[in-house]
Write a structure and sequence with these properties.
Alpha-Beta Plaits, GTP-binding, ribosome biogenesis, Rossmann fold, Ribosomal Protein S5, domain 2, 7-stranded mixed β-sheet, 33 helices, hydrolase
């Protein structure tokens, strides 16, 4: 294959219609990187013989060792095609294309890399294993293409496994492939159905609003004249008819081989084909037009051998004919495998090979025909007949859109969903949708992630290949070789000849050479610093080296462009063409290109938007990551003096990894948050070898928990017999303020609703804060995001993953009321409680409620429709002296105590969930002679009230039956039945049960030797799970862990046997292990909290020594 010069790729960047930006998406081990190798071989970067083996884009050593992709990598490829400008043209002309390809990981721990790569591309190549079928990550990547509005192509890969492993016939393979295609289309149909249901709901809501408005107007008009109701009905009918429901066709979203958006391939054997290719091969032989063959080569169509006519299934008349896809396509593929590898016979047939090559007009080299390796003949034959690169790249060029076409279709929806979309400048909107590339057009680029590149690999620090070395470079190379030879010789000769061999080698060199060896050794020890390069896509305008652009953070909104922190102008220091492991310098970049940009280090944390203007700019960085960091590990350097290096390395790692996060706890621990166990291993390896360059010790994984309460059948009696359960009356130490608080468990539907709508609560809180600017302290800027305010309040670790949509205030209140109505027990308690909600917690967005149940209504109502004044019982506005201390002065202090209490529960200082706190009464008893000085003493009372309210909430919490909520993984295990099925199942079940998991479902994949097991597994028990299950099943089972949420462990951590039956069965020590207590004490031990009832010495005996 000829090597393509980078200059040709740079020239093609100016032709936007000939560019295709694609990403390859699939489940882990479905063949993405092997498929990419075959495409890279077309540009002469690697040998075609090594395609599928070298895994070129897996540039990390651990990627090569594990055989999986961990980081998305980009490469630009050249592809030329002979095409006719018009059907009547006799001579086709050569057309050149630029393919910007991104290879993404398939493991669930690195799904954030998929999210960052998909925003940069216009189309996606989705791979599905022909044997394993649709897996968990397949659904995830298909959903990502749907969300990003990318046009997909389906590649059914590893077709060779149907022949070599499953030993299927061509007819059986046809049935299997039809079912596989139905599975993929069912996933796409579910996305379409869900979206249409949402649109239908919104349409019905608009109709109801119009009907209500029309009815109200008609009644107003007819009220004075006592008109009939016929006009109302006419008005309603007219309104409904004007807003008819628009149906959308879902035909274009499905995969169908006759549409040429399905490719059948085997990346390891280097072949692929589409229906269109075989239609061209059989067009002349059968005398049927290609357009007709493309429609009938897939499906229930049959070829009459006598009349050469195409028949449908209803015209078979009992004849046993093969489908055309089997007869004309699969039989030929199967014949090649049987002739070369022997198929079931185990030995190839040279005569059959010769017959096949003659019929296809293919000449195989003689040395290939003499080869004893049947795979060499197989790959050579397929490379000449059905090359993988041709089928895939032709489909990409013909089916996937170019950047101008894609942006015209996608950008409107993407911009509409961005923050502050209504304030985006029309010039920016037109430049992105209409793909303006002029120098004066607004420049908009999206940086999806930051990539760490060693300084030695930057183009300016590397010598161009193919050039001659200077004299100095030749001397440096010779010195390095002599030093390496001396070291190797010393090791080979052993201790006796060690010094002599080194002396002999160095003796033949001059003094200058010896100094050169020392300089070389010093250079080897000198660290290679890492530089951060932005992985970006330009949507409009042109970007050149030296340009100054604004860097917009992910929380930027064009509605308030100068909000703190105000975006800064940054100078672009370098631009790069991404070539996998290599980088090529670029002077400028036009729109529609995926490129690398330098100069953003320290200005972009993970992702951001580059724009040439600040007012009216657009924020494209609001991408939803596929996985949330759930595993936290505390780190410390082995040598305490290297702490600064570790912290610097952690900050560098946080910028270069889309999913990793770094934080410092109140205890001073340096904690890294990762998506899973494999992701954690990769981050630690990068820290030790690249970013920190020091030895680092990792502690035990810190797993998040939640604390809650339930009303159990067997509970201790209330601590206050005269008060309802959970009610606590707290008095400050000065006896001047008394707070009565009641704690009660929230109904389950309400807790689930609040957990799913965290974003809506954040939005409502931001709007409420904008109305109450004066309430915020002067030390906290108005523009600081709410999560940063919560961190300043000491509420770290209380974040909640949100999965819901943003609701308006009216919709939020209506749905919350419906959730309370579902709780039929204690209906009187929850009646009208929505109007009394004062705050959510923790972090003011969590699934806990602070409810103002006082008669004076001293707290502000969070869900109020408009600002209300303080009103007395007789309806008169009260006016209180400024010197008088009232209960309202402490409302914000008690609310703050609620935030603190829900952020750190009484069990093990973990966040609460599903708890309602009712503030029933606040009594202030300040002596009359101290009224004038009360305002001066308010600061001292503030601390007392916060401490008292917090302790009262914790005591009320413990008055119920407490529960621990465990973080849970959804575990999907795909196991092979090559061994005895019951044996594999028994081992899988044993591992899951031992780790306190439970099986949800098991199903045999029809037509395959695989079965799928779905289970739930606690995150705390998941470490080492993947390795153990592979060892126990001898590699027959492969798990995928996805964070599912929190699940209650129905066990009281303080339970002890106290009834006669329990004491008789379990004894006083309770032989049955209290798992909740074990989890609770483990967290308390890690945090350094007191553990009640802990025995330091179990069996005290006298120490015996050798002397006594």
């Amino acid at each position: 294959m000829p090597v393509v010069n980078p200059e040709k790729l740079v020239a093609l960047q100016r032709q936007a219609d000939d560019i295709r930006n694609i990403c390859i998406l699939a489940h882990v081990d479905h063949g993405k990187t092997s498929l990419t190798d075959a495409l890279i071989a077309t540009n002469g970067i690697i040998s075609p013989k090594l395609a599928g083996k070298i895994r070129y884009l897996d540039s990390r050593p651990d990627e090569q060792t594990r055989g999986i992709t961990m980081e998305s990598s980009a490469i630009s490829l050249y592809f030329s095609l002979l095409r006719r400008a018009a059907p009547d043209d006799a001579a086709p002309k050569q057309k050149e294309y630029l393919i910007n390809l991104i290879d993404s990981p398939g493991h669930i721990d690195f799904s954030s890399e998929v999210s960052t790569a998909s925003r940069l591309c216009d189309g996606a190549v989705v791979l599905v294993d022909a044997v394993e079928g649709v897996c968990s990550q397949t659904v995830t990547v298909l959903r990502q293409t749907w969300i990003e509005r990318m046009k997909p192509i389906l590649v059914i890969n590893k077709m060779d496994r149907l022949i070599t492993e499953l030993r299927m016939s061509a007819a059986e393979a046809n049935t299997h492939l039809s079912k596989l295609l139905e599975q993929v289309n069912a996933v796409m149909g579910s996305f379409f159905q869900g979206e249409r249901m949402e649109e239908d709901l919104r349409w019905r809501e608009r109709i109801d609003e119009r009907v209500t408005a029309t009815s109200a107007k008609t009644q107003e008009r007819s009220a004075p004249s006592n008109g009939s109701t016929a006009d109302v009905d006419d008005g309603i009918a007219t309104t409904v008819s004007d807003a008819g429901y628009e149906e959308k066709d879902d035909e274009d979203i499905y995969f169908a081989p006759e549409k040429n958006n399905v490719i059948f391939s085997s990346a390891i054997d280097g072949w692929a084909f589409t229906i269109k290719q075989f239609a061209g091969l059989w067009e002349k032989k059968l005398g049927i037009k290609r357009a007709i063959l493309e429609k009938v080569l897939w499906g229930d169509f049959y070829l009459d051998p006598k009349t050469k006519r195409v028949l449908s299934s209803k015209h078979l008349k009992g004849r046993n004919l093969k489908p055309m896809f089997v007869q004309l396509v699969l039989d030929n593929i199967w014949a090649v495998y049987e002739a070369t590898t022997g198929g079931n016979k185990g030995k190839g047939d040279p005569t059959m090979i010769e017959k096949i090559t003659k019929s296809l007009s293919i000449n195989l080299p003689s040395h290939v025909l003499r080869s004893r390796d049947p795979r060499a003949i197989l790959t050579t034959l397929f490379a000449a007949w059905l090359p993988l690169s041709t089928a895939l790249l032709v489909s990409v060029i013909e089916h996937l859109p170019s950047p101008p076409v894609s942006q015209a279709a996608r950008m409107s929806d993407i911009i509409a969903s961005s923050p502050g979309a209504t304030h985006v400048s029309p010039d920016v909107l037109n430049a992105m949708t209409k793909f303006q590339t002029k120098a004066d057009a607004p420049m908009v680029a999206y940086v999806s992630k930051m990539v760490a590149i060693p300084q030695s690999q930057l183009p300016q620090n590397k010598r161009r290949t193919g050039g001659t070395m200077s004299a100095e470079e030749a001397r440096e190379l010779a010195r390095k070789k002599r030093a390496e030879f001396a070291k190797a010789q010393a090791v080979a000769d052993g201790d006796d000849s060690d010094m002599s061999s080194v002396a002999d080698v160095l003796g033949g060199t001059t003094i200058s050479d010896q100094s050169g060896v020392k300089e070389e050794a010093e250079e080897e020890q000198k660290p290679d610093p890492e530089h951060l390069i932005g992985f970006a896509r330009l949507y409009s305008g042109t970007l050149s080296v030296g340009d100054e652009v604004y860097v917009l953070p992910p929380k930027f909104s064009p509605a308030n462009p100068h909000a703190h922190p105000e975006p800064q102008k940054v100078t672009v220091t370098a631009l790069y063409l991404l070539m996998g492991r290599e980088l090529e310098s670029l002077p400028s970049v036009p729109a529609g290109v995926v490129f690398g940009v330098a100069g953003l280090e320290g200005h972009i944390l993970k992702s951001g938007t580059l724009c040439s203007q600040l007012e009216g700019s657009v924020n494209l960085a609001g991408v939803n990551l596929g996985s949330q960091p759930i595993v936290r590990v505390a780190l410390e350097p082995e040598n305490p003096s290297e702490l600064d290096r570790m912290v610097k390395g952690l900050r560098l790692l946080e910028q270069s990894d889309p999913c990793a996060e770094y934080e410092v706890l109140e205890s001073g621990e340096h904690v890294i948050l990762t998506a899973g166990e494999l992701h954690l291993e990769r981050c630690l390896k990068d820290l030790r070898e690249r970013f920190a360059r020091c030895e680092i010790q990792a502690g035990e994984p810190i797993v998040p928990y939640r604390e809650s309460i339930v009303s159990a059948a067997e509970m201790n009696p209330p601590k206050e017999k005269d008060l309802p359960r959970g009610t606590v009356v707290g008095t400050t130490t000065s006896k001047q303020v008394t707070v009565r608080i009641r704690v009660h468990p929230l109904p389950t539907p309400v807790t689930e609703f609040l957990s799913k709508n965290t974003t809506a609560i954040k939005t409502l809180y931001a709007e409420r804060k904008a109305e109450e600017e004066g309430v915020r302290g002067t030390d906290t800027p108005l523009d600081v995001p709410q999560d940063q305010i919560a961190e300043r309040d000491g509420l770290e670790g209380a974040g909640i993953t949100d999965t819901g949509n943003v609701l308006s205030l009216a919709d939020f209140k209506a749905q919350l009321k419906l959730a309370f109505l579902e709780a039929k027990q204690e209906a009187d308690l929850w009646k009208d409680v929505v109007e009394k909600i004062s705050a959510f917690g923790p972090r003011r967005t969590g699934p806990n409620l602070f409810i103002d149940a006082t008669h004076q209504e001293i707290c502000n109502k969070f869900l109020r429709e408009e600002n209300d004044q303080e009103v007395s019982t007789d309806g008169q506005v009260t006016h209180i002296s400024a010197d008088t201390v009232t209960a309202r002065d402490f409302s914000d202090k008690i609310s703050y105590a609620f935030q603190l209490a829900t952020a750190q529960g009484p069990l093990c200082n973990e966040p609460m969930q599903g708890v309602a706190v009712f503030l029933e009464d606040v009594t202030v008893s300040v002596p009359s002679d101290e009224d004038s000085r009360a305002r001066e003493k308010l600061g001292r009372l503030t601390g007392e009230v916060i401490r008292t309210a917090r302790e009262s909430i914790r005591q009320g919490f413990l008055d119920w039956s407490p529960r621990m909520l465990l973080a849970m993984y959804s575990c999907e295990i795909q196991a092979s039945s090559e061994y005895i099925v019951t044996e594999v199942l028994g081992r899988v079940y044993g591992v899951i049960t031992r780790r306190r998991g439970r099986i949800l479902s098991e199903a045999m994949n029809e037509g395959t030797p695989f079965f799928t097991i779905v289970s739930l597994l606690p995150v705390a028990e998941s470490f080492g799970f993947s390795d153990e299950i592979r060892k126990r099943t001898s590699g027959a089972a492969s798990p995928q862990l996805i964070f599912q949420g929190f699940e209650m462990l129905d066990e009281d951590p303080f339970w002890v046997p106290f009834t006669e039956e329990e004491l008789e069965d379990l004894g006083e020590l309770a032989d049955k292990e209290n798992v909740a207590k074990r989890y609770m004490e483990g967290v308390r031990r890690r945090k350094g909290l007191f553990i009640a009832g802990k025995k330091l010495v179990e069996n005290a005996e006298k120490q015996k020594t050798m002397k006594r």
